[in-house]
Amino acid sequence: MAASSEIRGRVLSVASECVPLIKTGGLADVVGALPAALAKVGWDMRVLIPAYKALRSKIDKMDEVWREPGLFGGDAKVFSGTVAGIQVMLLDAPHLFDREGGPYSGPGGDWFDNARRFAALSWVAARIAREGVEGWKPDVLHAHDWQAGLAPAYLEYNGADGVASVMTVHNIAFQGWAPASALTDLRLPFEQYHPAALEYYGGLSSLKAGLVTADAVTTVSPNYARELMRPEFGMGLEGVIAARGAAVSGILNGIDSEVWSPEHEPVPYSAKAMKGKSENRAALCAEFGLNVPGPLAILVSRLTDQKGIDLLEAVVPDFIDAGGGLAVLGSGDPALEAAVKRLQTRFDGRVGVKIGYDEALSHRMFAGGDAVLVPSRFEPCGLTQIYGLAYGTVPVVSAVGGLADTVIDASPAAISAGVATGIVFQPVDALAFAQALRGLIGLYADKKLWTQIQKNAMKQDVDWAASAAKYAALYEGLTK
Ligand code: ADP
Question: How far, in Å, is the centroid of ligand 1 from the Cα of 180?
Fold first, then answer.
């Protein structure tokens, strides 16, 4: 479907990452996918992100549209242009963003001035939202995660001029904490330093600032929206979220079905013609040096505590014993990298591990794997289980956040109703995970049932269109 001819409204989306320009996680996928999906339902979205060192070369082909002298220690400009079909604005503030390393950290760890760096992004976002740029004036400012959390706050405290604001939480574990002494430096009003506004455990949190000042709060799955009101998941912000009540909602992420479709892989397949999948499986086994009689599970993930990677050492030996195999792609915590490498050494030929970040390999893994493991302790939405659904690579997931919203467990009832799409386990511990893997072995052995589950999974509507319609309805409610 082409972009809608009628423009219903304009949105300035503010974030620290956007695919295909810069990505460290799922946030970037969402920020990069929303503009095209929203255009189809009449919402004109532009994305503001920092001009990190790696992005400065893009500026040459863009137009200067904004000047911001004296932006937290230096002069800044904003450049605008279309990159990969997305209308992007890059905040060029060399004193804050022209540095070697990732968006948040350099060789020595996190940048010491991250609070200021992203306050600067948020400051410019609020100014552009209020004043418009080159005749383009947004109706809504949409802030993503803590890095943009101060944008709704600056709007609220300095005058919103009719611009509505939305704060989306992609991961509440990152809260953008700063000491109370940073208040003035971050251009925040002293009189708002109290528990119902900016104060957060004796300091400040840019995410909290966004949560209390935005007109609407969203998170990336309905289940995570509910979880965030509980201490186990809210990570200190549960009271703040609960207090926003009906202003909080959950909208599931979609995936780009042009990029993530088994029909677009080198050896294509579909729910109707699955043959290509076994070819992909054979190629994947060869690539990882594996020979697996039972289900070949894949895992594509940041290797962190959040993702439940530490559970693997306890559950994989039995899974291998029962005929399973495992291919892992990921990087992160050195102790967890070492743990998966130990499994590879111990189960050579049945467990394969690649440490690193490799988008192309991840595609080959979804195309060739039988199942994808996502044993997260918390998961705001999760993307790899959704790729798994689209590829008939049966998701085995813990019952948290968006994982519980997107996968239907192969319980006897769901099997007889013909709706099962994967395996869902709880609680998030080795016992339940091991049982889920035994379940996987059993399902895989029943070829008819296995094929049925794969097909159910591949039939799920996981494209961005459904999510975009929900965001559009939210914007419309805020602006009508
Ligand atoms: P999170 O944002 O918490 O890391 P998500 O599941 O929401 O988790 O998104 C992770 C995204 O990053 C997915 O698109 C996943 O495929 C991708 N990804 C994670 N690790 C790797 C890796 N090592 N190589 C390639 N892609 C990866």
Answer: 34
